[in-house]
Amino acid sequence: MPILLLIIVLGVLAIAGFILGRRRALASVEGNTRRLHSLPNYYAWHGAIMAFLPAMAVLTLWLIAQPLIIERQLSDFFPAEQFENDSQRILLMADVRRVAEGLDVAVAAGALSDDDAANISADGTIRDRLATVGVALGADVTAQVLEASQAYRKLAATGAFWRSILALIIAVAGLFYALRITNGDFRARNRVEAVILGVLVLASTIAILTTVGIVLSMLSETIRFASMYPFKDFLFGLTWQPSFQGNSELGLLPLLWGTLYISLVAMIVAVPTGLFTAIYLAEYASPRVRSIVKPLIEVIAGIPTVVFGLFALVTVGPFLRDWFAVPTGLGSSGSSVMTAGLVIGVLNIPFISSLADDIINAVPQSLRDGSYGLGATKSETVRQVILPAALPGIVGAILLAASRAIGETMIVTMGAGAAAKLDLNPFEAMTTITVKIVSQLTGDTEFNSPETLVAFALGMTLFVITLGLNIFALWVVRKYREQYE
Amino acid sequence: MTDATSANVPASAPAPHKSSLLTQTALMKKRNAAESRFKAYGIAAITLSLSVLAIMLWTIFSDGVSAFKQATFSFPVTLDAEKLDPKGNRERDEMMRVTTIGYTNLLNQQLVAYLADRGISTEGVSDKDIAAFISRDTPARLRDMVLANPDILGQTIQFEGFATGRIDGYLKGRVTRDTAERDTNISVAQLDLADRMISEGILSASFNWSFLTAPDASDQRPEAAGLGVALIGSAYMMFLVVIMVLPLGVAASIYLEEFAPKNRWTDLIEVNISNLAAVPSIVYGILGLAIFINFAKFPQSSPLVGALVLTLMTLPTIIIATRAAIRAVPPSIRDAALGVGASKMQTVFHHVLPLAAPGILTGTILGLASALGETAPLLLIGMVAFVANYPAGPLDGGMLDPATALPVQVYSWASRSDPAFIERSAGAIIVLLAFLVVMNIVAILLRRKFERRW
Questions:
Q1: Which chain B residue's Cα is nearest to A210?
Q2: Which of A96, A340, B223, B406 lies at 20 to 30 Å from B149 by C-alpha?
Q3: SS (H, E, C) chain B
Q4: CA dist., res. B298 & res. B397, Å (int)
Q5: pLDDT over 90 for what percent of chain A?
Q6: Does residue A302 sit at the B interface (CB-CB below 8 Å)?
Q7: Residues 134..163 of A with a Cβ closer than 8 Å to B: which?
Q8: Does residue A384 sit at the B interface (CB-CB below 8 Å)?
Q9: Are B369 and B199 in contact (CB under 8 A)?
């Protein structure tokens, strides 16, 4: 039974549970709802939940476990000495799975009958026959792979059969259990609410699971990378020269330098502009001006970064090249540290200004009044009273903005260039960690060479840097925050 | 006593400082100058950011508007039955044997002949150069048309087809006689001919619906490239993101705001959420690649994987917005509900949640808007691939078919060499921004309409 159909059947059982649960509860008190412990609908929901949830849970577990178990069974087909390393085995298993699924698709599409599929021979025709139903196989199918994939299909079919039986039995059993315990004294509301609470708790753990997923996925691949390429050379290498024939030099430092240099340019643009914008809006602007300008500035933050990327590529890059780089003889490339840095800087202005604006507004009016009372001008008040009071928050905002600049991808991919260089010239094309993650991981890649796995190590580096900056920013804000009460 | 001392002041002492509030001292002048300088810095900062914004939007719009127009030929084509259906039996399979090359030759001959017919001078332009006017996409469209309806064979139809990117660019002002002199793909004589064809009404620029509906096209055919697949892909993803992120975000927020005990576990979740909101988006791409594609074996480039990644990415922002909305519901509402005997769960679902709904909705729309424009994580899960086929309908497993997304299409067009693709890329941005503007306006209107002061 296909999974979708199975789920629909479970849904129907749940609806039956809903109706029967309610009816049974009402029947047990002869229709007098005041004698029920809970409102009738809670009994209905209890029936539905008991019919649906346990079966669904078992189904999910089965779906996760089945491929793992089948692959273990299939390892008998392939002697261990056939493979030099683990990745070859994984690739072969992927082949087996693809052939098996291809045959199933062909049967479903009517291109092969069941018997044909089971007796198909391992000559060169499989690939063509599967291609006619839209299944593309990478290489010709060997007899060994075909045999394994037939076994795979058989196991999968048996698995699917027992899966449906088990899920249906559990669903029906749950339904009967719910109906059996339903009577006027049964506390259906408490149980339904406990289930809902469980769902809420599960939803809130997604955040933790995401972090765990990020860390684990990057860590495991980084460890695999470290087993293929000396990690010390990655961390301290001065050249970045991946070549897919081997002998790559994968040094982090040129990428890190490009990242930091571009971020520095961005911060030089964004910090003063953002701060002055925030100060003007918070201290000088009339409410009307503020109500117009503040949303306009925030429009910048709402524009997708790929738009800034195109702007860098088409407008800013050629402009800087023709008006600054070429006349001064500093470079001849449109994509450069300056291009990417300036555009990221503009992107970060609203980020800094709105954070700083909030922080400045949080400084109590009494401090301003005191300063004015002593005869200070507005700007003196801002510089000598408000900014020192708001400093921890502003430092936090700047650190958060720096972390965003470091993690920015599209603008640097389109505006900074692809050459990994350790150079001081800001009109030279340089590259960043994020650019290299994109270039190493896009396209059809197999995850078994250091050249692709390095992307995970780069991702890990990026994650550690930005996470560190964020935590440091929060710590600064908390530690040095002034309490005004 | 004081009088006496003041009388004893020696004459050599400096005269008492005479200042008036009406005249400025040097110091005061300096301080006031600093004051106005400071204010000017603020105005300059705002002007700078707003003018960069204006310049950016202006360049993109002026580059992109022309993508919605397309130079189109319109001339009578006689569909020669002998050439297009050599066996003459109108069998579809037999007619499939005639490739687009056959149709190309037919169109080329007919165009040359038609120009000669109308007496339009083709001086300096060889027949081959005239043929180069017709987009490589056009014969394929004619072929599809004939195969779909073999009865039109032998008739003369008024056929409309695209001109190539260079001619298209000439009509839009991107290609000029100066650039044509340096371009090996187009000559000045061809542009002159184009002028004559325009004045005869054979060549004209019309609104280009296929930019919104057609799938992407290869490097040589910028004029045929459209946003169809990208729009479908983005629509699928946004649909999936909404149905995943809204229940998850609301459930998590309700738990954290209403039920969670104050303990280490809750603290851990809170710290996690605020950190996840600041993780660079590309890291989510790596996560999606490692977990959903490499581990769970979901198909690459599929809207499903894209939606999962975008869901995880927007979840923290949506949780933060939703929690703020729930927190804004005053405790008196909860107390009243609890007081008349509602359970905690009933209080939350029957009273708090409906009152917080407008705020939750506003936050969700804004989160979706940022997800719609997100590009970097989608590059890693393969959505940057060239996809020329529409994904299947949502019920036929279209969520698993390869597709692209609007912002990714912007990027992939921008990275192609032909400048005609830059125009398309800017055009795609206009479409993207139009969606974002609509979403933001809806969010603002919702906030205005339902905003409540307790």
A1: B312
A2: B223
A3: CHHHHHHCCCCCCCCCCCCCCCCCCHHHHHHHHHHHHHHHHHHHHHHHHHHHHHHHHHHHHHHHHHHHEEEEEEEEEECCHHHHCCCCCCCHHHHHCCCHHHHHHHHHHHHHHHHHHCCCCCCCCCHHHHHCCECCHHHHHHHHHHHHCHHHCCCEEEEEEEECHHHHHHHHCCCCHHHHHHCCCCCHHHHHHHHHHHHCCCEEEEECCHHHHCCCCCCCCHHHCCCHHHHHHHHHHHHHHHHHHHHHHHHHHHHHHHHCCCCHHHHHHHHHHHHHCCCCHHHHHHHHHHHHHHHCCCCCCCHHHHHHHHHHHHHHHHHHHHHHHHHCCCHHHHHHHHHCCCCHHHHHHHHHHHHHHHHHHHHHHHHHHHHHCCCHHHHHCCCCCCCCCCCCCHHHCHHHCCCCCHHHHHHHHHCCCCHHHHHHHHHHHHHHHHHHHHHHHHHHHHHHHHCCCC
A4: 12
A5: 46
A6: yes
A7: none
A8: no
A9: no
How close B409 gets to chain A, by Cα (Å)?
Answer: 10
The DSSP string of A233-287 is HHHH-S-EE--TTS--EE-SHHHHHHHHHHHHHHHHHHHHHHHHHHHIIIIIS-H
Q: Please enumerate in sequence order all residues whose Cβ is within 8 A of that of A469, keeping only pairs 6 or more positions apart, or say none.
A: A399, A400, A402, A403, A406
Task: Write the CATH number of the domain with boundaries B228-450.
Answer: 1.10.3720.10
Q: Is A407 on the interface with B (CB under 8 A)?
A: yes
pLDDT of residue B25: 85
* Tokens matching residue B6: 């003041």
pLDDT at A132 over 70: no
- Indicate if the pLDDT at residue A258 is higher than 70: yes
Nearest residue of A to residue B407, measured between CA atoms: A306
**Helix (H/G/I), strand (E/B), else coil: A416:** coil
Q: How many CB atoms lie within 10 A of CB A372?
A: 14
For chain B, the domains span 68-208, 228-450
- Selected for mutation to probe chain A from B56, B271, B281 (highest A CB count within 10 Å) is B56
Name the band, by pLDDT with cuts 50, 70 and 90, for residue A45. very high
Q: Contact A102/A130 with Cβ under 8 angstroms?
A: yes
Average pLDDT along chain B, 454 residues, taken 10 residues at a time: 49 61 85 93 95 94 87 80 72 73 80 79 74 78 78 78 81 78 77 80 82 84 86 93 94 93 88 88 92 84 92 94 93 95 93 92 91 92 82 80 90 86 92 94 87 72
Which tens digit of pLDDT belongs to each residue from A341-385?
999 999 999 999 999 998 999 899 999 999 999 999 999 999 999
Is B56 within 8 Å of A403 when comparing Cβ atoms? Answer: no
Task: Report the chain A residue with the minimal C-alpha distance to residue B317.
Answer: A207
Domain boundaries, chain A: 3-186, 240-480
Question: Minimal Cα–Cα distance from A254 to chain B, Å?
Answer: 20
H/E/C letters for each residue in A132-184? HCCCCCCCCCCHHHHHHHHHHHHHHHHHHHHHHHHHHHHHHHHHHHHHHHCCC
Q: CATH homologous superfamily for A240-480?
A: MetI-like (1.10.3720.10)
Establish if A307 touches chain B: CB-CB under 8 angstroms: yes
Å between B408 CA and nearest CA of chain A = 8
Return residues 226-255 of A near B (CB < 8 Å): none
Cα separations (Å) of A338 from A268, A323, A393, B313? 11, 13, 28, 29
Q: Is A194 on the interface with B (CB under 8 A)?
A: no
Q: Is A273 in Cβ contact with B45 (below 8 Å)?
A: yes
Do B411 and A309 lie within an 8 Å CB cutoff?
yes
Asked if pLDDT for residue A259 goes beyond 90, the answer is yes
CB contact under 8 A, B433 and A307: yes
